[in-house]
Model the fold of this input.
Amino acid sequence: MNRGGGSGGFDAVVVGSGPNGLVGAVRLAEAGRRVLLVEAQDRIGGGLRTEELTLPGFRHDVCATVVPLALASPALRAIDPTRDGVEFLHPRVPAAHPLDGGRAALVLRDAAATAGGFGRDARRWRATVGATARAGFPLVDTLLAPLDLPPHAPFSLARYGVLGALPATVTGALFRDTAARAAFAGMAAHSILDLGAPVTAGYGLLIAALAHSVGWPVVRGGTQSLADGLAARLRGLGAEIVTGRRVRDLGELPPAPVTLLDLTPRQVLEIARDRLPLGYRRRLERYRYGSGVFKVDYALDGPVPWSDPAVGEAGTVHLGGTFEEVVAGELAVARGGHPDRPFVLGVQACVADPSRAPAGKHTFWAYCHVPNGSDVDMTAAIESQIERFAPGFRDRVLARHVMGPAALEAHNANEVGGDINGGAGDWRQFVSRPTLSAAPWRLPVAGLYLCSSSTPPGGGVHGMGGWQAAGLALHDTRS
Done:
């Protein structure tokens, strides 16, 4: 083991404290490395930040709230943040998709019960989403480590791939019930892509299956608690954490045998400069960022008044109407437009965690997708979609806090143009993220690694980028 390799006595330096940076730092520290974690903001967390955005006593997650991948990820299963006091809370209904006329599609923890709500599509839901859920952790581990061979679940992967590689518009055509079709479209829309594009069905199958296999939990007190728990683990292992220090050049860091960057290609180019080979720099310059997000956080005087009371028990609510409406809305964004009826993803965290708001009050946030870097105010469009399925919603609003793409990027530099996934997740960048490589976490500079969501498997609170980069670093420096 290489101890104290730099003049500052650090074996590894990690830049950025999002979930990937934290997980990478923990893996290195638990392997006995002395770690320095450097964060540009005054608080750690990146996408795991909780703040009183609206009114005192109302705790809002600035980015991630619902974290199924935190329970499914092999990295976080190994680390087990519950050892640090982190508590995951489950709503009775993981997700709901309201429809006009007061009906809603409900995605429950139990796959059979969910399928039973889809009438003639019950068998199809069990054979697609249900089968993905039954494949369990071996399939999830294979999908979250897509470049690892051999796959943990080759037969399940092959079955999943038959449908998952297709556009959501194709796989979604298997469903005939209006509610089942709408529910699948809402799941696939988590891809933040045109649903007519390849692999979008795979996003839908996996995210829906996680509702059945591990649930869609929130973190008690906010996702900041997850970041704080991992930070506490690091400090207990002797790591040093420095906040409020933006790294503008790699030369500012203390020398160490290993440096992990929880950054997207744009920031890597800025701080690595000509240390990177010219050909690699050019490939990073061609890296594509995806659509952005426009988000509104609400402090409410009570629960959202859904037309269907069952929606009030859901942690996540997909607001987009029918399958066709969701497809049309996401296509418009992919083509650079701003639909009048966007697909809106909403979260009512207080359903599972009442501590997020004062007694009797509620928090709610909602976002829609917009073209990268958009400066269009989508507040009215978002609220129209909410009112469509929850008449009287605006009367419950005590305060709102709006964040467009520029505000999101100012809060977290990795959210370039409002892209919360660290880059477009289409099929090309699924296999070449950020470049085509058998080990994309290893940069072509000795001791330098990339661990952000711009590496496989992409966005989400799973920590796999950090886990993979740290694993490579440990292998490369083993003596």
